[in-house]
Amino acid sequence: MTGDIVFWVLAALAVAAGVAVFSVNSMARATYALAISFVAVGLTLLLFDLQFLGVITVLMMVMEMAIMAIYMIMFMGMNPALMPMSMKHGKGAAMTIAVGTFLVLAAGALFVPWPARRGTPAPDLTVALGEAIMESKMLVMMTVSPVLFATIVAALVLAAPSGRYDRLGDDLRRRSAPARQPEGADR
Amino acid sequence: MTLQTVLLVAAALFSVGLYGAISQQVVVMVMMGLELMLNGVVLAAVGFWWFLSPAPEGQVLVLVVITAMTVEMAMGFAVATLLHRSRNADMTDMAADLSR
Known about the structure:
The complex is a heterodimer of chains A (187) and B (100). Chain A is an all-alpha fold and 187 residues long. Among the domains of chain A are: 1-85; 125-169. Chain A has helices at 2-21, 27-47, 51-76, 78-82, 91-111, 125-134, 138-159, 164-168. Chain A is extended and about 65 Å long. Chain B is 79% helix and 0% strand. Chain B has helices at residues 3-23, 27-52, 56-87. At the A-B interface, helix 1, helix 2, helix 3, helix 5 and helix 6 of A face helix 1, helix 2 and helix 3 of B.
């Protein structure tokens, strides 16, 4: 009973904060709302005894939202991030698609005859997850690791100020960089 | 707390995120919509795992989705940085020619 109440409170908080992301009038507030939504879902995972996944969801998303706030200040300045704004297009079509998607998913959730539960959870789910990714599901770990490394490299290549795009532009066939203009007092 | 209720909440999160991803013009706000959609996917995956087949493989799937969220956010920030530097653009409409 207590678990049900906590679930509904967290579920309402997650959805309400999710709606607030796109209804509050500043990007900084939207970031806080998204962080609250993620924390609510992370805490919901704890109700399923998923301590590890719940905690990394909360930690990762809070850090991610902090980085997002820094980005907004970098690109838009502190005041624009806090100023009231509304930059949307196609609101009517987007609302129609979103409501239609929800109705289809909700109908599937309610009317599909889901099978009965097979098996029982392991006594320690964190240990079970660790054993799975280090034994029978090691291929997942071996795939995720290079993907994350490739992400780091690709993100740096794209974001570094002296990267290929800054030197050569977006013409992928271009092979040589233009001659650098001399800089400093002696040019 | 049943599978249906968990899936309903996940569907609501996914749909709200979809609305944001389609309607927002600022790149960072579009990324927020995508994150919210993946938030719903995580919750749905956990619901399926817990109520249908609570084997460790389900947890591994959730771990993969969380990894996908990380990759999406890192690449999104990198592309947003590149767009801002090369075109001084922070809105999707200012980079619409990239879709051609």
